[in-house]
Amino acid sequence: MRTRKTMSKVLMLALTVMLVFAMSSPALAQDYFTTTTGSYIQGTAPTYSSTIHVNLVVESRTINNDYIYKTISNVALTPSGTQSFYARDVLLAVQNNASNNLAFKDSSGNTLTSSDSYFYSVVDTSPNPDVTYAPTSPSAWDGWVFRINGRFPLESASVGASIATAYVADGDTINIYHDDVSSSSACADFAKITSVTDNGRNTLTVNVKASCQYYGSAPDYTWHLTDFTNYEGVTVDVYDENGDAVTSGTTDSSGNVTLTVGSFGTHTYTVEVERTTFANGLIQNTTDEVVYTP
Predict the structure, then answer these.
(1) Taking the CB of residue 265, how many other CB atoms lie within 10 A of it?
(2) pLDDT in tens, 133-167
(3) Is 157:34 a contact under the CB 8 Å cutoff?
(4) The domain 185-294: what is its CATH number?
(5) May I ask the CATH architecture of the domain 18-180?
(6) Between 231 and which of 131, 164, 178, 208 could a Cys-Cys bridge form, CB atoms 3.0 to 4.6 Å apart?
(7) How far apart are CA 19 and CA 7, in angstroms?
(8) How far apart are alpha carbons 27 and 21 in whole angstroms?
(9) DSSP secondary structure letters along 90-125
(10) Across 209-228, average pLDDT
(11) What single-letter DSSP state applies at residue 22?
(12) pTM to 2 decimals?
């Protein structure tokens, strides 16, 4: 169930938390709730001898009313002989293609390399000058995190995978997004459209679920990762194949919203969860979209 969050934050430790993959650090106690739908323990990385394709979705916090929300589909990863691929390989492939206008950097501003296991900021190189999307401050509990096919990859029940150790398979989707893990009221709800049902009579029922992650209170600062549950109160929009708005509605306590879209015919619809942010630009809930042809 979606709950409205407050803007209050806990006092920050005198510690720089590289969120995108401080999860693999044993410095803080962790409780990943590995039986939930929000995470999974990795098995053996698949190997490939021919090109595979992976999708990358990037969603930043808002700065000066601007933010990154970009889907890069079918990122090609070509093996040298037979090899496995990891999240870092996807980021490097995206970064190395200038048309994507994205760069991933560490806290010193160095561009991501094949030996790195984390990144600190994402740079949008399309405007002039570039815009850097980094944590709100070096000591803040917000920063970049990632999921693969909607879930956090774990190396074991107590250790999260980094971009260097989280393997990908052909057809996977990686979401990297900005999150504030300081508390359960500040974390970004990772929203997913789980189903779109054609009810006939020109109506669709859309189900939305969400999961979030956050650190618990002192002294353990246990890491919590919630299960996907029905997401109440989020707005769902429908657009036609021309990008024109058709209708919108708000999910109920079951995470459902029924939308009248008019004559189906041969239309193809984009169904989208509206992104929301806090007053400081940090994400309250992520967006998600699916293309649906009745």
Answers:
(1) 7
(2) 999 998 889 999 999 999 999 988 778 899 999 99
(3) yes
(4) 2.60.40
(5) Beta Complex (2.170)
(6) 208
(7) 19
(8) 12
(9) HHHHHHT-GGG-EEEE-TTSPBP-TT-S---EEEE-
(10) 87
(11) H
(12) 0.87
